[in-house]
Amino acid sequence: MTKVSEIIDRFEQFAPLTFKEPGDPTGFQLGDREAVVHQMMTTLDVRPEVVQEAIDRNVDFIFAHHPVMFRPAANLDLANPQNAMYAELLKHNITVYAAHTNLDNAPGGMNDWLAAALGLEQTTGLVEHEQQDDEPELAMGRVGILPQPMTLTELATRCKERFNLRGIRVVSFAPKQVVQRVAILGGSGGKFYPAALAQHADVYITGDLFYHTAQDLLATGLTALDPGHHIESICKPRLRALFNQWKTEAHWEITVLESELNTDPFQFQ
Known about the structure:
Blueprint (H helix, E strand, L loop, with lengths): L3 H11 L12 E4 L8 E5 L4 H9 L4 E4 L16 H11 L3 E4 L2 H5 L4 H8 L3 E8 L10 E13 H11 L6 E3 L6 E11 L4 H6 L4 E5 L3 H10 L2 E4 L8 H16 L4 E4 L11
Parallel strand pairs: 2-3, 2-11, 3-4, 8-9, 9-10
Antiparallel strand pairs: 1-4, 5-6, 6-8, 7-10
């Protein structure tokens, strides 16, 4: 038998909770740490439709990137869809764990996956993480070099292809400019654009850019691409591969699935 706690302990050797950013609700979310796991599922988000998918697929452990509890519940009124989702998880004995900024900062984690998807080479960290004793040097985001220079338009096309996007927002006065040094940070990283400037990036790729932040980027001369937050869904196959590797090494008696749902709330018409 393999327990939730065994899987969490192994993951936290890879991305300890000390790697997370201050105030981030990363870690154990809901359920029973000592529950036996038969089927686990990796996902970017824990939304009502994802919970129903887990129920339909007989999943007893959901491993997510985004925490299910960003904000504490004010009450447990089941008329609220979020509260109803918690009730469904508890009713079906599904345990939930979220690896958020600890996975973002971990070497070989989220931002390395994103950089690799674009083919970036010679990568280094973008935003330095405040070190604690005995920790390796950590950083959120990556800066790297494209194997060959390309225009911003070509890089935008590459992003759409590699991350399966229907659209991408471009912040630039010159879409035909040639770029090669690229900074990328998964999630909502607009406030970190000064780090991309400081590291002399030709272009900064991150999601959820605010209107005024985009104007500030243009004023500084830094080009940006906003592919959205959902590119972090790369975590689903990558986490599944990690857990299958550890399953083999530790002889866990589990099946590892990945969510088949697209939880991106935005569509392009």
